[in-house]
Amino acid sequence: MTDKIGIVGAGLVGSLLGISLKQKGFDISLFEKRKDPRKTKIHEGRSINLALSRRGILALQAVNIFDKIEPLLIPMKGRMVHDVKGELTFQPYGNEGQHINSVSRGRLNQTLIEELEKSGVLINFEHKCERVNFEDSTLEFLHGKKEKFDAILGTDGAFSVVRKQMQQLDRFSFSQHYIDHGYKELNMPPLNDDFAMKPNYLHIWPRGSFMLIALPNQDKTFTCTLFFPFEGDISFNSLIDKDGILSFFDSYFPDVLSLIPDLEEQYQKNPASSLMTIKSCPWHKNRTLLLGDASHAIVPFYGQGMNAGFEDVRLFVEMAEKMNWEWQSIPPAFSSARKPDADAIAELALNNFIEMRDHVGEADFLKRKELEAKLQDAHPEEWIPLYSMVTFSDLSYSEALRLGKIQQKVLDGFLDEGSDKCSYDKIIDRFNTLKKRESNINFPSR
Amino acid sequence: MTDKIGIVGAGLVGSLLGISLKQKGFDISLFEKRKDPRKTKIHEGRSINLALSRRGILALQAVNIFDKIEPLLIPMKGRMVHDVKGELTFQPYGNEGQHINSVSRGRLNQTLIEELEKSGVLINFEHKCERVNFEDSTLEFLHGKKEKFDAILGTDGAFSVVRKQMQQLDRFSFSQHYIDHGYKELNMPPLNDDFAMKPNYLHIWPRGSFMLIALPNQDKTFTCTLFFPFEGDISFNSLIDKDGILSFFDSYFPDVLSLIPDLEEQYQKNPASSLMTIKSCPWHKNRTLLLGDASHAIVPFYGQGMNAGFEDVRLFVEMAEKMNWEWQSIPPAFSSARKPDADAIAELALNNFIEMRDHVGEADFLKRKELEAKLQDAHPEEWIPLYSMVTFSDLSYSEALRLGKIQQKVLDGFLDEGSDKCSYDKIIDRFNTLKKRESNINFPSR
User: Fold this and answer.
1) I need a labelling partner for B46 at 20 to 30 A (CA). Which of A39, B136, B355, B442 fits?
2) Residue numbers in A near B274 (CB within 8 A)
3) What is the pLDDT of residue B439?
4) Which residue in B171, B445, B446 has the most chain A C-beta atoms within 10 A of its own C-beta, making it the best mutation to test that interface?
5) Rounded to whole angstroms, what are the CA distances from B109 to A259, A421, B105, B121, B243?
6) For residue B351, which of B299, B398, B389, B422 has the smallest C-alpha distance?
7) Edge-first strand listing for the sheet containing A49-52
8) What are B213-268's pLDDT values in tens digits?
9) Residue B441 pLDDT greater than 70, yes or no
10) Chain B, nearest residue to A167 by Cα
11) Distance (Å, rounded) from C-alpha B128 to C-alpha B149?
């Protein structure tokens, strides 16, 4: 008899997981608390876009649907850094030909849902999971409806109901940590029927304790996102009235002010949303397993939230197949194998906020970037910058973090000595020595 | 008009808080979900005892009730370390005359409740708080009963309902982290109508990855607590059958085996309970504030959980008095002032587990202890060992942690050089230099 799999949450990760497991021949039931997104208008004030990169693409290719997603993408070759005078500096993300991809969350989700339905899975919309019985793997919904499964997969996001049920259990470790900053989205309309700024970049206005970024949309708008402290002298809390808003943007983002005519209205109308990291351990109870944001939500500063969730799906299906789909043993195995990577990308994402809002505008940072680019040119197999390991490879996040820390140590040492005296070979030698020496040190899993 | 204060939870911290605020003239309502403990028999299988020390005593003295508590105490002058052969080594906790005090949680709580009632506060037992309305400071109970207050204080312990309500709010950071070990209590009966072991010590059987401790009770029994991994080769999970239990105790704790006749029955009957650290931030919303375990539960290995909670009460009342009892401003002020200390004692408590179960039996540890004792003799004002700063002083926990780390660095350096070459003056000089140099570094608050 075909195993019955219940999936809670038809967001990005849940839909991809449904497609993948359906292809493996399972009987899939997908439950989503919201209405069918195809029947509701995507709210224009919050056209969230995401950055799809290597790990996400690999997962989409694994189920042969990347060709359906590709038309939705706008490549971004690197950071376009705006200084306070509006001067631009280009910082490529990787080698020639490497780029990340701006994509609308709404359109991506709709496309995945369509592919899911084409494969024969019907989604139960407006089905809010109320309770999970972990003993007999039963999902309970409003009005007392119950359904039993061979395995339950919780892909219901950062505020996961499945995880909240696990939180009631003894010995379930959990943390939700909010950062001091929040974000507010502002839409930049087209100018003369074209993009108001060059489209193939992630635009960024680093201003030390805060920053603005902009990603292109297919309708030739940009979604600008202000990452800003909630409290303090310069914060969402203090910047409220129209004159204040205009003079703030005039001081820090003059070029943006000129390109968003209704900026102060949008600022006042759009909400300031909070940002958090969620960790949990273990990710499973019996035959129920959490994947994606439900077990490990991260801050958005490395552009890896969705990519990590999609990679969860690819790695989970690979592991489950190797384990002959034994639903009792897969959840603990996946939880302990993947948890260190989730912790690593959570740490990397928090660190990258400081890099984006502050360091990208600094001379030292540029000098280091330049040295790293030269190292990679001279030793392309041996020196891959951290950003590239995370974004353009499928090396585990925890190994990328480990190598990145060693790279930083090596570069610190050589930059202290004065870069004139540096020989690239010496740097690579030192890196390779440390890489081997420290390779037995495990990452603490929390 | 007298301010109305609602306190949720009549455990140790809630009762002491009630006594203290009643003395200041407020109108106190105390709600407790359990039945009156004076009307229920204390369950003998789980006669939890705690270690009352300086900080707790100071808080009891501040409300003039320490003389009521003192008769309940059994002084413990130091650790009595049992090796596998049953050989004993005494390690004093502090100077001559310094000791910690074994006390029964149940008796202590009953005494506090009696003092509270004598002061004119009646406790509403069997009142389970169901909801807190943070906007108008209203508590809601079963059957729809509601009551509005000028301030609400949540002292309802590690599984606090008040905190769970706060967890629903945006930007409330929270973590619950379970450690790999749990604990099981075993009761050691009197021998020939007297204590079966010397009473004025905390007995400890350090065995590396696990340990047993025993604290004396006034009925001449000892409560022994086995701290043991939940999983693995030697764990609660694997040690189940009678023969296994007996042969395990015979190998690791032979002297205990001979003093607890029904050991295997107790082991099989008594539960293995889990241990966790809880952190939250902030500790307040509007006029509602969490105190004690509700905001910062810790593992028991420094014997500071109750002492930290009692110190919360003393510091809170002192601060509130200085702030003229302005209930709108006190909660955020207390939360941000006290949070670094709660984080510090959480860290110290986790570290002390490794010291207790492992290091206390090691030669290096004893050598260091000896050196520290000599340093303290030679410079009693300048070198106070970490354990004494935590246990026998009211220095803030965060400052104790900071100084303890510097002490460790200084001792590491000198022990590396060979202790023969050490001059105490040199160590003190080095300590004082680092103490000043690093005094501007704040502890990360999480």
Assistant:
1) B355
2) 170-171
3) 62
4) B171
5) 66, 70, 6, 15, 39
6) B299
7) A49-52, A100-104, A74-76
8) 999 999 999 999 999 999 999 999 999 999 999 999 999 999 999 999 999 999 99
9) no
10) B176
11) 17
